[in-house]
Task: structure prediction
Amino acid sequence: MKQQAVPYFIFDGQAAEALAFYEQVFDGEVTERQTFGEADFPTPPEAEDRILHARFRKGPLYFMVSDAFPGSPVTTGNHVALVLEMETEEEIHHYYDRLRGGGEVLMELQDTFWGATYAKVKDRFGRIWDLNLEKQQSAPE
Result:
């Protein structure tokens, strides 16, 4: 793994407001932001301005934020996940297989539209883990 587990906060339509608040509180910055409407998959009109994914940084403070998709309630237990950034295909498969044992697969291990191999698993203790492996971009010739 590349680093420690990164907190991922999930909101019910308040992610943009929360990010603005955290920017003021911590004097940090949003380094990446994408809405559901900007993503390459069908999105209902009421979700277009919701945050699909954002990253916040201030020195060593780092976390990720998103809104839930409409119809996916945000409740205690699913409002925070831990992201593990993987370095190899073998590593992501290894942790995926171990974490799903006795747990629940929320999103199968798969290639994604954002250029990563990704899975979301709730372990047998109810903790949610996002496993992410960024694809290597080939250099232009």
Observations:
- The CA atoms of residues 44 and 70 lie 8 Å apart.
- Strands lie at 6-11, 29-35, 51-58, 61-67, 80-85, 104-111, 116-122, 128-134.
- The mean pLDDT is 88.
